[in-house]
Amino acid sequence: MQNITTYSFKSSCIIHINSTQNNTILTATDLHGQVLKTSSVGSALKSKRGKRSVPQGALLSGEILGSFLVDKGFETSQVRIKGFGIGREKAIQGLFSSGLQIVTILDITKVPHNGCRPRKIRRI
Question: At 108, is the secondary structure helix, strand, or coil?
């Protein structure tokens, strides 16, 4: 018989990472869907313009969110990633470095199977 590990509701959470070309937004929720904290690259770097698309900012915001969750008593988390931005992997590295244990990583990016109908070919 396999050893099945069960996680308590208090010690686990879900982290949603929305990564776009211009910004990376991390949202931590409990298992019921209530938002605990939101962290973005713009709030981590305290800059209004320009530097929100860098991967170092995603690393910093992941560390900030992970340390907040560890201080609140959360031990394990699920990570759900959406988008094709450059801060995807760095945000996960920031969560790892804060001491939060990541159980699963899911990619929930919506990809069209066939897409829209292409435009009519132009004839000259």
Answer: coil
Q: Is residue 99, in this structure, part of any structural domain at all?
A: yes
C-alpha dihedral over 22, 88, 58, 90, to 10 degrees? -140
In this structure, is residue 2 part of a structural domain? Answer: no
Tokens of 111: 């990809």
**Nearest in space to 20 (alpha carbons), one of 82, 92, 62:** 82
What's residue 2's pLDDT? 53
List the structure tokens of 11: 């010690």
Domain assignment present for residue 112? The answer is: no
Average pLDDT for 113-120: 89
Average pLDDT over residues 96-123: 91
Count of domains for the chain: 1
Average pLDDT over residues 16-32: 92
Higher pLDDT, 41 or 107: 107
Which CATH number belongs to the domain containing residue 56 in this structure?
3.30.420.80
CA distance 21 to 124: 36
Residue 79 lies in domain: 12-107
